[in-house]
Amino acid sequence: MRRFLIGSTLAVLAAMAMAAAAALPVHKAPADARVYIISPADGATVGRDVTVRFGLSGMGVAPAGVEREHTGHHHLLIDVATLPAAGQPIPNDEHHMHFGGGQTETVLHLAPGTHTLQLELGDANHVPFDPPVVSSKITIHVK
Questions:
Q1: Distance, CA of 33 to CA of 133 (rounded, Å)
Q2: What is the CATH number of the domain that holds 66?
Q3: Cβ proximity of 119 and 134 under 8 Å
Q4: Which of 7, 69, 78, 108 has a CA that sits 20 to 30 A from residue 117's CA?
């Protein structure tokens, strides 16, 4: 009986944790929302320190944690093959940079070689919009 109660309790706790993780709202993006990389240009050859400027139209920029309709903040995806999972917060690691302060540019320090850059707009909780607001992927060559 004790094993049954422990097992049942663990199953209920796991289900509650999964429900809480899935409970993050997914915000709708306006049909005309567009995010893009202003610079560098696709195919550019750049130095190890490269300034990346972000562009956004059809929505506004607001810091992470600020809930305003039709606003979000930038996430820069570096050498990422697959977009982050829909409905889940965008990871925060060396390949997924968060700009939760509402920044619209950054300076990257990249190793020599070929790299890809792509922007994705996240809501106040870093969750991608529906449909995702993502830029075209660009390729840069670092000397």
A1: 7
A2: 2.60.40.10
A3: yes
A4: 69
State the Cα–Cα distance between residues 60 and 64, nearest whole angstrom. Answer: 12
Overall number of domains in the chain:
1
pLDDT in tens, 17-37: 444 445 578 999 999 999 999
- Decide: 4 and 104 in contact? Cβ < 8 Å: no
Helix (H) or strand (E) holding 17: helix 2-22
Tell me what pLDDT residue 23 has: 54
> 36, exposed or middle or buried, with CB in 10 Å at 0-12, 13-18, 19+?
middle
Q: What residues contact residue 111 under an 8 Å CB cut-off, 6+ apart?
A: 48, 142
pTM higher than 0.85 for the full model? no
